[in-house]
Amino acid sequence: MASISQTNQFPCKTLSQNPPHNQFTSKPSILPLNSVRISRSLAKKSFLSIQGFTRARPLVLTRAADDDEWGPEKEKEEGGALAVAEEESPKEVTEIDNLKKALVDSFYGTDRGLNATSETRAEIVELITQLEAKNPTPAPTEALTLLNAKWILVYTSFSGLFPLLSRGTLPLARVEEISQTIDSENFTVQNSIRFAGPLATTSISTNAKFEVRSPKRVQIKFEEGIIGTPQVTDSLVIPENVEFLGQKIDLSPFKGILSSVQDTASSVAKTISSQPPLKFSISNSNAQSWLLTTYLDEDLRISRADAGSVFVFIKEGSPLLMP
Description:
With 323 residues, the chain is α+β, with helices and mostly antiparallel strands. The protein has a single domain (92-321), classed as Lipocalin (Beta Barrel). 34% of the residues lie in helices and 27% in strands. The strands form two sheets. An eight-stranded antiparallel barrel has the order 1-2-3-4-5-10-11-12. The chain has a two-stranded antiparallel ribbon with strand order 7-8. Helix 5 (95-106) packs antiparallel against helix 6 (118-133). The longest helix is centred in the N-terminal third of the chain and has 23 residues, at 33-55. Its main location: plastid.
């Protein structure tokens, strides 16, 4: 051991029982046997004291020679534990995450903006303004891979959509989904509105081309409209009663008639669904618009149209769409 080799280098004085004047003579002194025993005993004590001093040193010095034995393995184990700790640590919630959550929560009960009160609209505008100031993608048109997706409309201030969203305007159908699909490879945009009724579902959509005009702005030119083939429901659920003008109407006497309607709907469902969608061209020179993207990340997109209206989209499949 290193400590033993070091102690062997320390000089050890022996004690003699001869008179003091003998140490000044030129003759070497011959030690008796008992003095040799005393010398060995003292040397042993000196070795123990030196060894104790060596042990009192920091552990890192005494274990330096043993690094090859267990040092790397220990470092590997400690490194692995650190990696596991890093993997298990939760994702840090940023200020943008909190703003996004607050914005999505404020949409609750507004029916995409149709039923939003003035106080709610003011709160939404404030949250949108804060997010736009922290936009992580300052040049959205240069990040086309983020734009390339199907985006679900969750809020708008565009009053032109309110008649479609109003239940009174469409008593036999409701708007199930409004979406915008961007294909950044072919520079196309498809706006789609899907309706759902008691007997069928259908959609109306428009196809358009877009051109990049600035880091945030694209010019859109609509080319054609499409009326989707109605997907007829092959099973009709007949309720016990319906409410009309504030009064409940019992439908029990009409179950026989409604059952025959259900059978008819089931027989024609396949025939209608097999028909191709109806397409028509949009040749109006005014069928153009521009769109300004003011916020964009992997989940959320905020855009403003030329009329100043705001549109908030969430990417399809995002956790933000979960109720």
